[in-house]
Amino acid sequence: MALRRRELLIGFAGASGLTLTACAGDQTPPAPPKPAVIRFDPVAEAHDVDARKPGTVTVTDGELRSVEWLDETGRALPGTLSPDKRSWISAEPLGYGHTYTAKAVAHGATGEVNAAANCSTVTPDHLIDFSLGSQNMVDLTENDTYGVGFVILAHFTEAVDRAAAAARLKVTTEPPVPGAWYWLDDRNAHWRPEFYYAPGTRVTIAAELFGADLGGGGFGLRDQRISVLIGPAHVAIADDNTKMIDVFENGNLVRSMPTSMGMGGTSMVGGRLLSFWTRPGTYTVLDRQHPVMMDSSSYGLPTNSGLGYRTKIDHAVRISHDGIFVHALAQSMWAQGNTNVSHGCLNISPDDAAWFFDFVIPGDVVEVRNTGGDPLDIWQNGDWSIPWPQWQQGSAPA
To answer: What is the domain count for the chain?
Structure first.
């Protein structure tokens, strides 16, 4: 019996050996090594390339040994090689009006590979600049603080394609709030939310206009990014029914101030119709001046006329571009709280004016209610007087 088992084991071993020999005979030869392949972006002979695009070089089946990206003057575009040596990207955009020659050397399994490419970027007919400001017409500064009625103003040095420009103007808020741009014309756009901001909101404006085709052969000159903060909710409500200005901070009444507003009516002076109403609507604080020289001739009312004036005023808070202030006037204290006698400004006592002057910042809200005359217009600082559905209709077409 032992012999028969040994013969069986030898037989299995022999069969296994035959099987292994047959499998070895079926093996396919190894694939030949692949050469390194270099790719450029922009691709060779590309024209009118986007100015904000970077130059890139990538390699498959190999590693980059060197990259040279030269403009028409021979200047080398700086760039960074990735840690795995499979890609290179320029450290700056390609820019306007350049012709580039790119060369790269890579090493792969078959040895060294060389490649080259040429491309050219778009050349504008002219460049268009812009500025970002608030209602007070002052350029925004990083981390400035504004009131809850803050409005962003974008101004272009030339007329632009509104849709093209709007696509590059991004506004984000934290916390998020809905908002929209309103175009006054082809050079000026304003942005605001539907409602006043919450105190503490951060508002960031990113204008990525470099490289943007803004129409008519004009392209954006530069990018800009600004972030500002919203301060406490300061809202002053001037009601002509009560002749009082109630001032609120974060919803709490902090001061009530008797006032005398515009006397009302109109007058034709020098062929110009002048209004003496304090127009109803939502104003915002533009700036503060102490003192300020007020001259009626600045808006067409001669100082030597019966209604004209030229006088120095203390603690003046400007709320409109056509000269409406909340300011001190001791001479009208007899009328404050009962009679309107001003040319359109809101007169208050010297003590109240000094307090209000120190209390407010640009972007704080002044709501004027129940007065006569035409509603406040946007050019006067009436962004918040435009109903939200109408504001949305002023957006650039998609």
So the answer is: 3
CATH number, residue 223: 2.60.40.3710
Listed as own residue / partner, the contacts of 191-195 with beta carbons closer than 8 Å and 24 or more positions apart are 191/151, 191/152, 191/154, 192/150, 192/151, 192/152, 192/383, 192/384, 192/391, 194/388
pTM attached to this predicted model: 0.84
- The single-letter code of the amino acid at 396 is A
Last residue of a domain, one of 214, 231, 248: 231
Look up residue 201 and give its amino acid: T
In a domain, 396, yes or no: no
pLDDT digits (tens, 9 = 90+) for 187-198: 999 999 999 999
Which sequence positions are flagged as catalytic?
327, 345
Domain identity same for 245 and 345: yes
Distance (Å, whole) CA 72 – CA 63: 27
Is the Cβ–Cβ distance between 277 and 262 less than 8 Å?
Answer: yes
For residue range 22-70, list pLDDT tens digits in order.
445 567 788 888 999 999 999 999 999 999 999 999 999 999 999 999 9
- Do 78 and 137 reside in the same domain of the chain? no
| Per-residue confidence band for 13, with pLDDT thresholds at 50, 70 and 90 | very low
Element (H, E) at 226: strand 223-230
Q: How high does pLDDT run on average in the chain?
A: 90
pLDDT tens-digit map of 219-274: 999 999 999 999 999 999 999 999 999 999 999 999 999 999 998 887 766 667 67
Q: Which two tokens stand for residue 67?
A: 């990259």
Same domain, 112 and 146: no
Q: Which of 300, 261, 218, 269 is nearest to 51 (CA)?
A: 218
Do 245 and 351 belong together in one domain?
A: yes
Instruction: With respect to residue 86, please indicate whether it lies within any of the assigned structural domains.
Output: yes
- Determine the pLDDT at residue 22: 46
For the chain, give the percent of residues with pLDDT over 70. 87
End of a domain among 80, 103, 121?
Answer: 121
Burial of 389 (0-12, 13-18, 19+ CB in 10 A): exposed
Same domain, 203 and 172: yes
Q: Are 85 and 66 in contact (CB under 8 A)?
A: no
190 lies in which domain range? Answer: 126-231
Same domain, 226 and 239: no
Question: Comparing C-alpha atoms, which of 344, 329, 196 is closest to residue 257?
Answer: 329
